[in-house]
């Protein structure tokens, strides 16, 4: 079984989104495991700058040749930046999901919201079954 990378500085959702919190700015993306499960990504729907996100609620979708999956927000806040490169070339998400393949930057209302998200070890154990 292939082991994926799960950076320690991120927190993870059961639905395979990750969040990197730097001060009050959260960078949101999807995990390498999710990208692998989806296969070839062909379409990405993301909110507009200025849109409000609510923790646990859908903010967009990612579509592959196999499936369409909702993207769920790990935080409540306002979209301040979105990665339009990923909208134009969604297949690039797979190349560097934790780096250049990020999806959104959000100014969070309450940084402590991420405390109930999974750590890298917890997420790894859940998806890899180890």
TrEMBL record:
Assigned GO CC terms: cytosol; glycine cleavage complex
All copies of domain Lipoyl-binding, residue ranges: 25-107
Domain of life (superkingdom): Bacteria
Keywords: Lipoyl
Keyword presence, Transferase: no
Chain positions found as N6-lipoyllysine: 66
Cofactor(s) in the UniProt record: (R)-lipoate
Protein name (database record): Glycine cleavage system H protein
Protein species of origin: Iningainema tapete BLCC-T55
Gene from which the chain derives: gcvH
């Amino acid at each position: 079984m292939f082991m994926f990378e799960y950076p320690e500085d991120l927190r993870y959702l059961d639905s395979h989104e990750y969040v990197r919190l730097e001060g009050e700015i959260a960078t949101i993306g999807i995990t390498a495991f999710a990208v692998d499960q989806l296969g070839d990504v062909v379409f990405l729907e993301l909110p507009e700058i200025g849109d409000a996100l609510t923790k646990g609620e859908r903010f967009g979708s990612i579509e592959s040749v196999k499936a369409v999956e909702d993207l769920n927000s790990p935080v409540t806040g306002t979209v301040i930046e979105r990665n339009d490169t990923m909208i134009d070339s969604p297949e690039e998400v797979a190349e560097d999901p934790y780096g250049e393949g990020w999806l959104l930057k959000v100014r969070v209302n309450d940084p402590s919201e991420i405390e109930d998200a999974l750590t890298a070890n917890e997420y790894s154990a859940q998806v890899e079954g180890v």
